[in-house]
Write a structure and sequence with these properties.
- It is a single chain.
- By secondary structure, this protein is mainly alpha-helical.
- It contains three helices and two strands.
- The chain has a domain of 74 residues.
- Helix content is 58%, strand content 5%.
- It is elongated and about 80 Å long.
């Protein structure tokens, strides 16, 4: 019984000090960031922003059934949305948009 208690305490302290080491390293990175990592993050952010600005029009292709007929297609479409909580006069907006969308208000 004594050896199992020693093993349990050893495991506890090992896990405890491992946890403390990981947390302290994380705090160190937050308080004193490595300049190389900061520069890398800035460059990566700029690269992602530039990539988002480029328009990538990718189509996944058609999904066919067993007879080779189109079952699901990639279609280009335009869409818009509005936050319903911010629309003050929904009836008026629906009326104005119905002209452009060629749809009835109701």
């Amino acid at each position: 019984m004594k050896t199992s208690r020693v093993r349990a305490l050893l495991l506890f302290w090992l896990l405890f000090f491992g946890f403390v080491a990981v947390v302290s390293r994380g705090i160190e990175f937050q308080v004193h960031p490595n300049p190389k990592l900061v520069e890398f993050a800035k460059n990566k952010s700029k690269w992602n922003q530039r990539r988002e600005e480029e328009s990538f029009l990718k189509s996944r292709g058609s999904i066919l059934d067993r007879h080779g007929r189109d079952w699901a297609l990639s279609l280009i479409s335009k869409s818009f949305f509005a936050n319903p909580h911010l629309v003050e006069h929904p009836g008026l907006i629906a009326y104005k948009l119905s002209k452009y969308l060629k749809m009835s208000v109701h």
